[in-house]
Amino acid sequence: MSDSRFLCLEKLTLSYGKNVAVPEMDLDIGKGELVALLGPSGCGKTTTMRAIAGLMEPSSGSIILDGANITRVPANKRPVGLVFQSYALFPHLNVYENVAFGLKLMGIKGKQLDERVVDGLKTVGLSQYATRKPAELSGGQQQRVSLARSMVMEPKVLLLDEPLSNLDARLRLEMRTELQRVQKESGVTMIFVTHDQVEALAMADRIIVMLDGHIEQIGTPEQIYNNPASDFVADFVGFENVFERDGNKIKTLSGDVTVSGDIAPTTKGLAWRPTMVTLGEGPYEGTVRGTSFAGGTREYLLDTPLGQIKAECDASLPAHDFGAALKFDLPVHKAAQLARTGSL
Amino acid sequence: MFQNRAEAFALVLPAAIFAGAVFLVPVVILLSEGFRSGDSWTIQAYIDFFSQSLNQAVFLRTLKLAAMVTAAAAVIGYAAAFAIVNLPPKGKGRITGLVVLPLMISPVARTYAWIVILGRTGIVNQALVSVGLSDEPIRFLFTETAVFIGLLQLFLPLMIISLISALENMPRDAVPAARVLGANWLQVFTKVILPLTKEGLVIGGTLVFTGSMTAYITPAILGGSKVLMLETLLYQRVTMANDFVSASVIALILIVMAFAANLLLKRLATARNKR
Amino acid sequence: MRNKLYAPIILLLVLAFLIGPFIIIIAASLSAGETLSFPPQGLSLRWVIKVFEVESFRASFGISMFLAIGGTLAALILGIPASYALSRYKVPGAETIRTIVSSPIIVPGIIVGLALLRYFVVPFNFGILLALFLAHTALILPYAVRVVSASLNNLRSDIEEAAVLLGCSRTGAFFRVVMPNIRGGILAAFILGFVTSFNQVPVSLFLSGPGVRTLPIDMLSYMEITYDPSVAALSALLAFMSLGIVFLAERFLGFSRYV
Q: Of the candidates A189, A206, A231, which is a domain's last residue?
């Protein structure tokens, strides 16, 4: 067994009654990786995570962890931790008792127990809150308790369900670096589920983009951000102008339009971020339908024969008014070349 | 949601089987007795029951008293609930507590108190005689009035608490808004408060009506055999005549009336809403 | 405001109507005279003392206590698992089960008592006490399920999953993290069940036999025979008992939150 196949899902099928949520998924995750499961709600990412935790029984396929087949191992016997979206702290126990809960069940007592709990609380910076009840803590602190409670169990895999979604914007940034730090220091294999591409891009070593129960693309944040494999991923990471390609033409509202430039023969579609659209010159023309100032840049929504185009340019350039006609170009050399289309 | 069906059934079945065996099945058998004559099914028992003038009178009296108690509870209930919700929070909690308190006390004790008050030598009669309004004690006990008062005291708290929660769930600005738009207090009540609190009125009304319909203690103590209601009649038929058929008929009437009252009140509430 | 006096007057009248009778009954029970009257003819505790001397009151008090405590415990033993299943599992036919379990609240108690007498006690020679116990348990079951369900629904179900992932079995998770958090609701259900059973009359009406009857039934039949203030004294004592229980419950667990 190599480290790159630490956790393997093999032909894993997950269903709710007759509804198949995830059909035959294959996925390998390496030891010590920080992986994001990214996708819109209903894409099967939470279901997959619950199956890894053992909270949901697969209808077929297997889950291999560290060389052992854990598919039928009950949740309470799996070396897997889960930090719940709602934190799921035990309201009747204080912070210390929450963190000690799992250790006590493992039969750890006395000094050893105390050392591990104190250590766990220190890691997340909550030593002085040991006697507080969960209700007396802020959302961020509850999150840390929940993290410590799972971490002290020394799981082989730690799962986090939307770890930042219940925090306000400032805490979110703080928690991001905190989670990364804890992961790097402990070396635990960490998988977090999120619907927020910014979060996934910022934190993960590797991102798994899911849609409708299957994997759309796996890659590093740079790969996902710069080279989306499909129109769905492209749109999800901000390529808001997506077109299917046919030879040297792209399919638009007003029929096929010829574009010039090098396009790989396998490319099925082309996609441009708003910042990649050239404004003020070019072969196409559109009408300004909306404009908004976004600090350093200005965003435009154009009605064009190609369809609606979103463009963005430096705010220091002169602004174009609502209703103005504006020339623009979609330069092929900047475009992301998509290997697949049809999932949007 | 856990998915395991076997576990779910194992947890829920003991209670369901218990309630079914101890309660549902015997009651259903009892109700079916009213429709049996030898081996055939018939509604003869119902025809016989309603052809007797005593039974008719008891049936109508029960309906009348339950309706009157419900109406009186609604009027007093609105007045009291409105006064309570407008109290400052601390007073509101305390007064609500005092209103609920009687519900925790034995209805026998609650009803018995009225004997002391309404009896021949009770407070009311002493007052009437000493003030000179009456030459001799008036008989209150064993009259419909006594039963009415007893039932009202028993069930008024249920109406008040239903209306308190309804009034508290009403949008805070509804009444001031209606006042600003020029509505007088009567209009405010009929056009704003009533429609917005009808759910509480239906819940409270159903509780009070069915409670009064099926009350035993109050008519037994304050009505006696002079003011029979359906439950006291049922008791009398069984204990004095071993008449289980009439008991079954009355039982079904009570159950049907309870459901009918609920439906009727719901209907009234929605009809008012449509207008 | 124009009608500033409206609220105090209404409330005073309503409270006098609801609570006044108790004050009168307490006063009447302290009478030194032979018959029930108000104002009392002199003050004495003789009727309060008499209550404790009446043999049948002592016996029926014991039976009512047994039914209220035993019936409520039995209802909770049946009701807690059922509430748990209804709130946490996808139970097929959940609505039907809920209706069956809560049906004793809809049907008049007198009918339940009569049905038990006729189809359990008479044909199968069931003891009266057993029939009373079954009837009171069935009567309390809906309250137990309602109050416990309400506390379970206020508790997020992911704490059980969290406990399982930390090594608990499903049953262990229930006792370690669910029970401690619904203790207040269970206690509230117990008190509500106790008071309901103890004060219950219609269900017990037909279920009385030689030496076996509940206290309220015993009071009713005592009243038919004598007109002395001992029933008033007993009523007052029972009222104080109920109020004491409710007061303690409110004081120590905020009872009214659960009911």
A: A231
Residue B129 lies in a domain: yes
CB pairs under 8 A between A and C: 60
For A170, counting Cβ atoms within 10 Å of its Cβ (0-12 exposed, 13-18 middle, 19+ buried), the class is: exposed
User: Per-residue pLDDT tens for A235-279?
Assistant: 999 999 999 988 888 888 778 888 888 888 889 999 999 999 999
User: For residues A252 and A257, what is the distance between their CA atoms, to the nearest angstrom?
Assistant: 7
For C:173-232, CB contacts with A below 8 A are 176-177, 180-181
Reported ipTM: 0.86
pLDDT band at C1 (very low <50, low <70, confident <90, very high): very low
> pLDDT digit string (tens) for A57-91?
999 999 999 999 999 999 999 999 999 999 999 99
DSSP secondary structure string for all residues of A233-252: HHHHTT--EEEEEETTEEEE
Residue A150: list chain C partners with CB under 8 A. Answer: 165-166
Strands (E), chain A: 7-16, 19-29, 34-38, 60-65, 68-69, 80-83, 157-161, 189-194, 206-211, 214-219, 241-246, 249-252, 255-258, 269-272, 278-294, 297-304, 307-314, 325-329, 336-338
Is residue A318 in a domain?
yes
Q: What is the band of B275 on the pLDDT scale with cuts at 50, 70, 90?
A: very low
Residues A125 and A227 in one domain: yes
Q: CATH number for C54-257: choose from 2.60.120.200, 3.40.50.620, 1.10.3720.10, 3.90.650.10.
A: 1.10.3720.10
Residues A219 and A271 in one domain: no
Judged by CB atoms closer than 8 Å, whether chains meet at C134 and B22 is answered as: yes
At C144, which helix (H) or strand (E)?
Answer: helix C128-153
Domain shared by A244 and A224, yes or no: no
**Minimum Cα–Cα distance from C138: chain B residue:** B19
pLDDT tens column, B36-85: 887 888 899 999 999 999 999 999 999 999 999 999 999 999 999 999 99
* DSSP collapsed to 3 states, A60-107: EEEEEECCEECCCCCHHHCCEEEECCCCCCCCCCCHHHHHHHHHHHCC
Distance CA(C143)–CA(C104), nearest Å, equals 10
Could you tell me which residue, B118 or B149, shows the higher pLDDT? B149
- The residues spanned by each domain of chain C are 1-44, 54-257
Read off the CATH number of the domain in which A19 is found.
Answer: 3.40.50.300
Domain CATH for B164: 1.10.3720.10
Using DSSP, state whether B216 is helix, strand or coil: coil
The closest CB to that of A82, out of C156, C165, C168, belongs to C165
